[in-house]
Amino acid sequence: MKKNLTTLVILFIVLNSFSQTRFGINSKINFNDSSNIWQLGGGSIGFITETKLSDKWSLNADISFIPFYDYSIKKPGIKDTFGNDVNAIGFSSSVLNIPLKINYALNKTFTLESGLDINYRTSIKHNITDLNSISLINKIKKTDFGFLIGIGINTSERFAIKIGRTFGLSNIVDNTKNSYFTLSFNYFFSKLD
Fold this sequence. Notes:
Elements: H1 2-15, E1 21-32, E2 37-52, E3 57-74, E4 88-105, E5 110-126, H2 131-134, E6 143-154, E7 159-168, E8 171-173, E9 176-177, E10 180-188
Antiparallel strand pairs: 1-2, 1-10, 2-3, 3-4, 4-5, 5-6, 6-7, 7-10, 8-9
């Protein structure tokens, strides 16, 4: 996993070496909509870059930290230490979220975006304290990937609101993918020419 994160950091630096790059900050709220995940929510703050490739195309990379992301998964498809099916599992985690997107500008106000969404759980804490449930933490995957699509609304040359949908590609536990909606607010420190 360290190798993957190192690769992402290098990619982030390379993307920002272009002269048509601007930097900013963002704040996000995630709403899970998986059929078997009840989520109480997760909010984050992070850094964002946008690299202009042409008049219509640009690359976005951001890295956000979600300090508290609460999950409750029903019928996770795993067994407890006694071999019984587990009906539900609840846990909280801190998450490093790294979306890498390509954007297409429809006009000066609206953009379409698509790309890869990576979630890395930096910590996982179980919500239930009995020993049987605690042993299930090892079944939760630290990393998951998703395909993201969205639309951006540029309210000014420095401020944008983005609405996106991530479709989980990999499982959090045996039969549960991490699919969710994201609402983000981006502020850039400079304008793109």
